[in-house]
Amino acid sequence: MDIIELLKVILIGIVEGITEWLPISSTGHMLLVDEFLPLQMSEEFKEMFFVVIQLGAILAVLVLFWNKMFPFQFKDKSKPVIRKDIFGMWFRVIAGVIPSAVLGLLFDDFLEAHFGNAVTIAIMLILYGIVFILIENRKREPKINDIMDISYKTAILIGCFQVLSMIPGTSRSGATIIGALLLGVSRTAAAEFTFFLALPTMLGASALKIVKYDGGFTSPEIITMVVGLVVAFVVSLLSIRFLMDYVKKHDFKVFGWYRIVLGIIVLAVFLLFM
Fold this sequence. Notes:
By secondary structure, the chain is an all-alpha fold. It is built from 11 helices and 2 strands, in the order ααααββααααααα.
């Protein structure tokens, strides 16, 4: 692998680490980067890589939220304390994952083939940017301020919103946050629940892509995977900390405006030069 290709992989890792947790579509951004700075690898490998690279982002979540996600707390060396509330949250998360798991198995290949293009990404960026701004302009008082208060019904409904992110450019975190806000969840709790929901969703999606990948891995492809995962992990640590600090004091409108501006730029470039 030459230095130019390595720099492209590092750039994609940075893009994934920043955009996976911000509601601006990581897959959409990575596909746009590849549209203008394409990796010199097979389309089959890139399709798999753009999903599996999210495992680096998952590891960052585990590192930062281990105490909130791991149900066994060790206060001394001999006897762990079992957190039933955390177990309960994971059961609700599993319920919330079911809609995207079922529809992902049925329609993943179809959506990749028909919607993984710059025009679709641009339209989805603009559309959900407008939705974010409209939601944040409403006067509302959150009914749920802690993720432990999210019910099974609310979790499943948020999971239904996550299904929307199967279309590139939508944003998995964006779709779940929009759903959570509409259901009366606070911004902080919505962001945290997105992290919980991401783990089984992204692990499942990555496993599905790896199973479907027919080719063996070449040395450049292995390097691409390792570098991409490591960079995504490191950048995700910073991105998640930024988001959690940001939502405590601000709304999501800035991300809505960013999506709209980027979507318009992408459409203009596509219409003028493609």
